[in-house]
């Protein structure tokens, strides 16, 4: 098989993980060259659910591509909505009313919490603990109900528009959101008591699956993977967009670079998202939720444009090339899990198979977003 | 922010003028078009400055008979986006790989080869990544018809 496999080792075998395997959370296949229980070489095989979103972008209008952005990362679809509208608004020079910006932030952060809750449940499930998933889904259900009331869908949102949002929020939504935050605040200590302090979990995660900052840089990994290696890079702070500069929040980082560090980053991010939502709800101004002058037909000036947002998994970027017509000339989607997974081959070398699955879970992969 | 030393080092590679772009309007800070042979040298300069590679992609300029390869670089501690571009002819779309400097480029270059048929010289494995394993078409070329 590989150079590694044939070098100093007596006997290796190839183990096929996936494409249908519970630990890959979707249709991902990993070709593993094993030396007993140890991984000599791991090669992810992608493309099983490739849908060519970038080609679809070239044969429909700018607005018609909106629903596609909700179908990349099905766990934090609103961040992808946000990245795309930001790019088009930048290209076409559309200003967004302040109330719409606040609504965007509130809904995106709710979506981030729900994404991290699913990851939390599924990750512990990978490690053999079933119960936390049920608790996490119990909390997530409330978020889905809240978001359904304003967006009309539960998972594949298409809520943002160029120049605002599709629908204003009701006072009930704010009351419900604040009640949910109160509830989740009370439940976070329970999560930590039930899971974080559990000795089995600590033994499975502590000092396992090192992804140091330099490896993140070489592979372009961002998000909780990078912050779990001690680098405090967050697009919301590095390239402030929307109303994030007006809100007070911390960027959790842990220097260890192991699975436990990435776990802690995400749990701390849930707390920070709750802080952001509370402030945004308090500051929410009155006014329209769509720009009055937003054009019905979008024709951005010739040229190329880039916009990035901090999605739940890292930096999501949209690169647009416009030729001045009603359809994009080229639309590139830079998805975070793609880069985060690309380091798996190097990071998993020499690891025990069960530890490598902990590493894979801690990367928080969403396959439709990798395959696009 | 992008240091003056870095700007002049990259500008030395540029085939036409390197442009300091308006971030609010365009979404990146510095835009350099280099010769196809110079993408490795540009990657080396950015690597020494601690930049990471966000993505590599292509654009097919059918009317010009050219294809453009776009490299997006960014920095995690002193944010500043640098765009490196190189244009190759559509007849022989070839340029060197930067994967020896940035292993993260391995997948991005394979994907760009899938979609555009651009060949990255000395890339260890250009077999289809996202397209089916027997794919011999390049769907993002503007003259592609399914």
Structure, explained:
The complex is a heterodimer of chains A (372) and B (146). In chain A, the strands form 3 sheets. Chain A has a 3-stranded antiparallel sheet with strand order 1-2-3. In chain A, strands 6-7-8 form a 3-stranded antiparallel sheet. In chain A, strands 4-5 form a two-stranded antiparallel ribbon. Chain A is α+β, with helices and mostly antiparallel strands. The longest helix of chain A is centred in the N-terminal third of the chain and has 29 residues, at 98-126. In chain A, helix 4 runs antiparallel to helix 5 (98-126) and helix 5 (98-126) runs antiparallel to helix 6 (131-151). Chain A is globular. Chain A has 16 helices and 8 strands. In chain B, the strands form 2 sheets. Chain B has a 5-stranded mixed sheet, covered by helices on one side. A two-stranded parallel ribbon of chain B has the order 6-7. Chain B has a domain at 4-96: Beta Polymerase, domain 2 (2-Layer Sandwich), CATH 3.30.460. Chain B starts with a helix and ends in a 25-residue tail after the last strand. The model of chain B has no long low-confidence stretch (mean pLDDT 88). The interface between A and B is large, with 43 and 35 residues.
Terminal residue distance of chain B: 44 Å
Uncertain segments of chain B: none
CATH-wise, what's the superfamily of the domain at 4-96 in chain B? NADH:ubiquinone oxidoreductase Nqo5 subunit
Strand content range of chain B: 25-35%
Query: What structural class should be given to the helix and strand makeup of chain B?
Result: alpha/beta
SSE order of chain B, as H and E? HEHEHEEEEHE
């Amino acid at each position: 098989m590989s150079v590694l496999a044939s070098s100093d080792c007596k006997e290796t075998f190839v183990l096929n993980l996936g494409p249908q395997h519970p630990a890959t959370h979707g249709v991902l296949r990993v070709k593993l060259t094993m030396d007993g229980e140890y991984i000599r070489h791991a090669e992810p095989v992608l493309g099983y659910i490739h849908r060519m979103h970038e080609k679809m972008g070239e044969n429909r209008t700018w607005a018609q591509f909106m629903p596609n952005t909700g179908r990349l990362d099905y766990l934090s679809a609103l961040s992808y909505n946000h990245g795309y509208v930001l790019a088009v608004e930048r290209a076409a020079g559309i200003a967004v009313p302040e109330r719409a910006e606040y609504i965007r932030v509130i809904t995106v952060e709710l979506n981030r919490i729900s994404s991290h809750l699913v990851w939390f449940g599924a990750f512990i499930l990978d490690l053999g603990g079933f119960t936390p998933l049920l608790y996490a889904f119990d909390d997530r259900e409330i978020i889905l109900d809240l978001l359904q009331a304003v967006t009309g869908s539960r998972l594949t949102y298409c809520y943002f528009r160029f120049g605002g949002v599709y629908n204003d929020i009701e006072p009930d939504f704010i009351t419900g959101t604040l009640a949910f935050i109160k509830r989740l605040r009370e439940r976070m200590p329970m999560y930590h008591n039930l899971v974080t302090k559990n000795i089995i979990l600590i033994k499975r995660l502590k000092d396992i699956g090192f992804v140091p900052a330099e490896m993140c840089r070489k592979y372009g990994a961002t998000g909780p993977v990078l912050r779990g290696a001690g680098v405090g890079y967050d697009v919301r702070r590095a390239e402030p967009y929307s109303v994030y500069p007006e809100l007070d929040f911390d960027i959790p980082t842990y220097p260890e670079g192991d699975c436990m560090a990435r776990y802690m980053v995400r749990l701390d991010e849930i707390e920070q998202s709750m802080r952001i939502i509370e402030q945004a709800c308090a500051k929410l101004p009155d006014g329209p939720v769509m720009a009055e002058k937003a054009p019905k037909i979008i024709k951005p000036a010739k040229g190329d444009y880039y916009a990035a947002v901090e999605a739940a998994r890292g930096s999501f970027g949209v690169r647009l090339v416009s030729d001045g017509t009603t359809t994009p000339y080229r639309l590139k989607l830079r998805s975070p899990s793609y880069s985060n997974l690309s380091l798996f081959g190097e990071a998993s070398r020499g690891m025990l198979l069960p530890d490598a699955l902990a590493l894979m879970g801690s990367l928080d992969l969403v396959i439709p977003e990798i395959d696009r | 922010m992008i240091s003056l030393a870095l700007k002049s080092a990259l500008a030395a590679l540029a085939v036409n003028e390197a442009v300091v772009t308006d971030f609010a309007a365009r979404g990146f800070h510095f835009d350099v078009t280099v010769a196809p042979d110079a993408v490795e040298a540009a990657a080396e300069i950015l690597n020494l400055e601690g930049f990471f590679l966000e993505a590599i992609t292509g654009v097919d300029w059918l009317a010009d008979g050219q294809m453009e390869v776009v490299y997006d670089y960014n920095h995690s501690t002193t944010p500043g986006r640098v765009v490196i571009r190189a244009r190759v002819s559509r007849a022989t779309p070839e340029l060197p790989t930067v994967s020896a400097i940035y292993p993260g480029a391995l997948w991005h270059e394979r994907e760009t080869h899938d979609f555009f048929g651009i060949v990255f010289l000395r890339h260890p494995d250009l077999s289809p990544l996202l397209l089916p394993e027997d794919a011999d078409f390049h769907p993002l070329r503007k003259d592609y018809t399914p």
